[in-house]
Amino acid sequence: MLRNRLLGTLALCFATALLLSHRASAQEFDVEYYFTQAEDGENWPDGDGAPLGIPSFGSYTTEDGVRFTNNINNVLFVDDNFLMDVFDLNDNSGGFSQTFFEDDIVWGDPKGSNPTFSIDFEQADMTASFVQFDFGWTANDATPNFTVWDSEGESVQFGFGLGTQFNPGFAYPDSEGWGDQLQFFYDDFNDLPGTSLIDIARIEIDLNPVSTNTGTEQFAIDNFGATLDMENMGSGGGGGNPDQSDLRFGSSGQPEIEIVGLGTKYLVNSINNGSFDVAVVNDGIGDTTYSLAFSGIDSIYTPGTLPTGEPILGSSNEEIDPYIQFTTFAQSGEYDAQLDLTNLQKVGDTAQLLTTVELYDAPDVTDDTGDIVDPSTDGQISMSNAPAGPHSGALRAGLEINAIVFSDPGFSLTGINPLDFLAPGTSLNGQVHFDPTGLPAGSYGGTLNLKVAMNSEAGSFLNGKPPVPDYVWNIANQVIPVTENASDNASPGQDLGELGLGVQNNDTAADILGGTSTANQSISLDLDPDTGGFGIGFENTANVLSDPVDVDLGNDGDVFVLQLVFDGAGLNETQKQKVRLLFYDEGTDTWQNAIEFNSNFKAVQLIDNAINSEGRFFADTSYEQYMLDGGTLTPGAHGTTVNGVISAWAIVDHNTVFGAGIIPEPASMGLLLVGAMAMVSRRRR
């Protein structure tokens, strides 16, 4: 926020602080204008002389070099013929009362698009450190927008809230009057993010809110004052008393940002050498001279050519490039150099800059990647980094875990996570797990890859660090076939998915993924392609692609989620997308979509032959993702996923024999068998 610095309790803030149009020194001077010839000593272009006001796209420059530019698409007047009523502004403490807009003022009626009024000083090679004026308008908007430029072309845009509302008068029945005393200190803008102005060269006011093509709205400015510098502050202007200088360090390319310490981190021998630049900044208005010297410097550094008794103008900066060089051919450790800045013409004005380079040894890692990790036996992995050393002050880099990648499904890792850091003198220990849900019987394994990057313990970037290869473990786990009598007991309210109940052979895996038991009951699954004469291929009304599974809930009517997984290598993409969980209806000796036997299923034939079914929602995703996406345990929801293998699931409230397959369109009932499918399955606890 810009600070609202009101200057004292004077009726006009500049009445004693500024000397009217007289220069306080050879460089810095103050101006104040009330926009009357007699009081200001200016030939203001008002209605009593020629020309009549300031024409559109014209300007008026005072004898002091302040230029007022009219871009309001209408005449800009300097007189007392304005229509706005006067108003009073009281400060919050009751310290003063000031009447705005009486006698002569600058005023206008903006027209058209994008009208602006601007005040600038660069025409006379000047800048301002402070500008103040009274501003008001008849807009229903209390926040006019301003743009301020400095002499180096940097700018900032902002809204300045007006603090006083007034009745603008009979000419503006539909408008509000807003006004305030506005103050602009160039260094206040540096409190805004991303802004760094060194002075004020120009101020522009956006007058769109009071622009009308037919009606009348007005803005006005009065009681103008500024503190000016004859020479352009942004191009090295200065002068005056050296006691008005103020030196500090700045960073190269960012002269307004003070540096507390400049540090970077390097690996030993990763680069041959480097250098640092620095700037000396004079924030004051007075010229002075300065010197730089090192009061402490470690062995890796070589000083650059440092200035001694160097002049520096007020409000300017000097770049020293480079002020120090360094080599990385050294033992690991921290190396410091302290640079001292002395203002030779202002007692006590000193600054210090601490430069630090840290050289790191590479990580020294011990690991057990040579072992085969089997979650069914041990499943542990470990890696450790040696402490820094052996010399005093040594630094060692560490490893940051970027990613954990398994080549086969079913595996997971706990104890080690992405962004974990293997610091010097520490270890990381992990546990590999295996979940056979949805996997057929067989051997699973492959590799576990930890992808890592070299880093410092504090997480800082290491310049010149080399890439680090993955740390790779071989992993293995065996899923044993379990095809029948997989059973467990459930109690009322129990989550059926937590039972982990499933069966699998080499072709098919069947699992209960969710549901809720409403009674004490025994639940069992049997998977056997020969049971009951159910086989693979066209069985009556469907192409059954998986082995069938007999599901028995003692309390028929409980809601549960069943998933069947099988290998769909013999299917084309269209066929894969048509796979559904099926149900065998013994009464009609047919295979049907499993959800059509749910208690809430109702099919309604519409005019266009589409089917709108209560309890029939298809999710083209896994059951897990369906629930993550906000799904509920409602019978009828079902889905199919295709990812190497095919999984078909459904939420049902009936049980006996289920399979996975395709119900052909009526015209396809006579098609030949698609072919024997290689089935997938898996083992459950």
Q: What do you see in this structure?
A:
The structure is a single chain. The protein is an all-beta fold and 685 residues long. The N terminus and C terminus are likely disordered. Strand 44 and strand 45 form a beta hairpin. The relative contact order is 0.08. Strands 34, 37, 38, 39, 40, 42, 43 and 49 form an eight-stranded antiparallel sheet that branches. Strands 1, 4, 7, 9, 12, 13 and 15 form a seven-stranded antiparallel sheet that branches.
Give the N-to-C terminal Cα separation: 65 Å
> Mind summarizing the main beta sheet?
8 strands, antiparallel
Helix/strand/pairing class, anyone? Answer: mainly beta
Q: How many H/I helices?
A: 3
Q: pLDDT under 50 segments (min length 5)?
A: 1-26, 91-96, 232-238, 252-260, 530-539, 604-614, 667-685
Molecular shape: flat
Average pLDDT works out at: 79
Estimated radius of gyration: 41 Å
Strand content: 35-45%
**Tally of strands:** 49
- Share of helix, binned: under 10%
Task: Please describe the topology of this protein.
Elements: E1 28-33, H1 37-40, E2 59-61, E3 67-71, E4 76-79, E5 87-90, E6 97-100, E7 105-108, E8 116-120, E9 127-137, E10 145-149, E11 155-159, E12 164-166, E13 177-185, E14 202-206, E15 219-229, E16 247-250, E17 261-267, E18 273-282, E19 288-297, E20 301-303, E21 310-312, E22 316-327, E23 333-343, E24 350-360, E25 365-367, E26 372-373, E27 380-385, E28 398-406, E29 411-414, E30 421-422, E31 427-434, E32 442-455, E33 471-479, E34 486-490, E35 502-504, E36 508-515, E37 521-527, E38 537-539, E39 542-544, E40 549-553, E41 560-567, H2 573-577, E42 580-585, E43 590-593, E44 602-605, E45 611-614, E46 617-619, H3 623-628, E47 637-643, E48 645-652, E49 657-662
Parallel strand pairs: 17-24, 26-33, 46-47
Antiparallel strand pairs: 1-15, 2-3, 3-8, 4-7, 5-6, 7-15, 8-14, 9-13, 9-15, 10-11, 10-14, 12-13, 16-18, 18-22, 19-21, 19-23, 20-22, 23-24, 25-27, 27-31, 28-30, 28-32, 29-31, 32-33, 34-37, 35-36, 36-41, 37-40, 38-39, 39-49, 40-49, 41-48, 42-43, 42-49, 44-45, 47-48
